[in-house]
């Protein structure tokens, strides 16, 4: 199967610390590189990740709090300095569009590539990007400002041809696409070789959900059915449940409740409050509800 990986660039929350960068991730899927959120310092983390700048084609911003978007103009400026020519696509709440354009006009000259802005309606679930291999959908969340998460899904692929059967029945390469599409093979003697003997099943479709800043939403689980890997913000532990309610964030236990109800494969925790010097207290709370839970950390990589 082709790689489908999540590279953690930052997993802290708004207050800067020496332990964590603020929110940003890279998603490597089907030879594409997508970015989820772009906090201050993201371009430095991108360098540390050893992922190629030129592969990044799309950036998806969840909401307009600085710990999710302050790094965008700096990264764009650097892309110009290193000679980027390919268009960079920015998907974000509509209010960012004119602000970003003013920054580009003021801070960059002869950028060398286009920055195309795509407004995202955070109030509806909708496909915000699609190509022949993947689809990215917005998922409405409940935060202090308009905010959405993103669901990245592979599109179904065709089954795999069995090379040994091609050779055994002397099937020409010109018929491969027909067989992948479900055709049987008829030999020169008139024997019908059923398609099920000529192929092996297609790779299963994989899905990754990025749930950024949000209050606890029990109903969110219905949006996440069939997700293999779920990242869900876990700013607080149960010891600060009142703060979670007040500031529209979630606890690690609440994130685990969503994961359990949705039946996801695994849960990744992040967006930690700076008050926690050891996030294992969050991990322990989540694992009481959903065992297959992991802490994120800068430069960690998770397979979807």
Can you summarize this structure?
Helices cover 25% and strands 28% of the residues. It has 304 residues and is an alpha/beta fold.
Describe the protein's architecture and organization:
- Helices cover 25% and strands 28% of the residues.
- With 304 residues, it is an alpha/beta fold.
- The strands form four sheets. The chain has a seven-stranded mixed beta sheet with strand order 6-5-4-3-2-1-18. A seven-stranded mixed beta sheet has the order 7-8-9-14-15-16-17, with helices on one face. Strands 10-13 form a two-stranded antiparallel sheet.
- A hairpin with a 5-residue loop joins strand 11 (185-186) and strand 12 (192-193).
- The chain is globular, with a radius of gyration of 22 Å.
- The mean pLDDT is 95.
Spatial separation of the terminal alpha carbons = 11 Å
Q: What is the general shape?
A: globular
Q: What's the arrangement of strands in the largest beta sheet?
A: 6-5-4-3-2-1-18
- The Rg value, from CA coordinates, equals 22 Å
Label this structure with key terms.
304 residues, alpha/beta, 7-stranded mixed beta sheet, globular
Question: How are the elements arranged and paired?
Answer:
Elements: E1 4-10, E2 24-29, E3 32-38, H1 42-49, E4 56-60, H2 66-69, H3 72-81, E5 88-93, H4 96-107, E6 115-120, E7 126-130, E8 134-140, E9 148-154, E10 160-161, H5 163-168, H6 176-180, E11 185-186, E12 192-193, H7 195-198, E13 199-200, E14 207-211, E15 229-233, H8 241-247, H9 252-262, E16 266-270, H10 280-287, E17 293-295, E18 301-303
Parallel strand pairs: 3-4, 4-5, 5-6, 14-15, 15-16, 16-17
Antiparallel strand pairs: 1-2, 1-18, 2-3, 7-8, 8-9, 9-14, 10-13, 11-12
